[in-house]
Write a structure and sequence with these properties.
The protein is α/β, with parallel strands linked by helices and 104 residues long. It contains four helices and five strands, in the order βαβαββαβα. It has a five-stranded parallel beta sheet with strand order 1-5-4-2-3.
């Protein structure tokens, strides 16, 4: 499975597609700006919401759920990369996090 650190992901810039597989409540509390929330509990039924034709980066709280989602996406033919450490590591390394409700 392909993986990337949060620092390497941040260096790619704001236009890369990031999928956050945390549940709705977790995502509502804090999120990386620009991410798309597709909870792991509904992931298989929402695969049509995953951007096709380009590399997608998959994140969760710390990396466990995102690794499962990344493996599933890879099996489905997507170019998916797991984000090591998830939003927890993203925050710890000083990257921006949104805490207010916003549209998905």
């Amino acid at each position: 499975m392909n993986s990337i650190t949060v620092d390497d992901l941040a260096a790619l810039g704001p236009d890369v597609p990031i999928i956050d597989v945390r549940e709705d409540e977790e995502y509502a509390e804090a999120r990386v700006p620009g991410t798309k929330n597709i909870p792991l509990s509904r992931f298989a039924g929402s695969i049509g919401d995953v951007p096709a034709g380009r590399t997608v980066y998959v994140m969760c709280a710390s990396g466990g759920r995102s690794s499962r989602a990344t493996a599933y996406l890879t099996e489905q033919g997507f170019d998916a990369v797991n984000v090591l450490g998830g939003i927890t590591e993203w925050y710890r390394n000083g990257h921006p996090v949104s805490y207010h409700p916003e549209g998905r």
